[in-house]
Specification:
By secondary structure, the chain is an alpha+beta fold. It has two domains: 178 residues, Formiminotransferase-cyclodeaminase, Chain B, domain 1 (2-Layer Sandwich), CATH 3.30.990.10; 146 residues, 2-Layer Sandwich (Alpha-Beta Plaits), CATH 3.30.70. The radius of gyration is 20 Å and the shape is globular. The two termini are 28 Å apart.
Amino acid sequence: MNNVNKLVECVPNFSEGRNMEIINQITNVIKEVKGVKLLDVDPGEATNRTVVTFVGTPDVVVEAAFLAVKKAGELIDMRQHHGAHPRMGATDVLPLIPVAGITLEECAQLARKLAERIANELTIPCYCYEAAAFTPERQNLAVCRQGEYEALAEKLTTEGKQPDFGARPVDERVQRTGMTAVGARNFLIATNFNLNTTSTRRANAIAFDVREKGRPVREGNPITGKIKKDENGKTINKPGTLKATKAIGWFIDEYDIAQVSMNITNIDVTPLHVAFDEVCRCAQNRGVRVTGTEIVGLIPKRTLIEAGRYFLEKQNRSTGIPEEDVIKIAIKSMGLDDLKPFNRVKK
């Protein structure tokens, strides 16, 4: 297969966001692979998690990903890990994303082979998720990660919950590394909406208002009532207002605020500015304000252009201004520099 004109992005999430020495050792093995371009390293202290973004042809990206998983497994001890973000392994998730000249299905095939190699050569159990999933249920990352690291022993030994590759009784090695979800997906935006509250409960309520999955329907009291089930025993949910989104609420010690943390899985269905306005509306309904927006990793330049033009139109202003000024309007309108300087999107 000719890989010269194929371009793949990889966005591994490592369960370390505080120790830059460890983070640098992991990213260094990525940079050492010839043909790989490291685009972004985004550590989070409160989540204790680092999102890394790199691109290259399929072969070199897969090799860099494997070496990064190996290094993370050597340096990160999951028995000592605590953070705000759900996690189950030293390398928690490892998605491959088609950029140019390659299909999502081809990335899924690469992901399955990579997961098998990680399990066989590094003895790190792996789930395959999203487009690489072997079953419809495991297309949902939350299903693979259910119970998080604390459910390690149960998931490794319970039929139906075991990882796709590398299932075995718990030993010291797997206690240290945890498990990894390897997948293939299209581009998404990971974003956190900052709130003027410290209440995780209110942040969660807003997240449930907007996320596509919504919230469980309850009998009687909407907060404490018994959750309704369908005839198959599955929870009945009232959908949220934003399609193609996943969201939770959490408190971030680093900033001393609560946030609505969201993944926008299809930016053509729900653009960032639409998500921002809707979270603002739902927050206001609950007596809370959105004070700004935090981007995790990278976003396409067109996302900022679309947002800037949207906010200019709301102000009844011309959109025929220089592109740089359109982007500035987007940054200011959504408070992208609220908590820290906004790093401009790489072209």
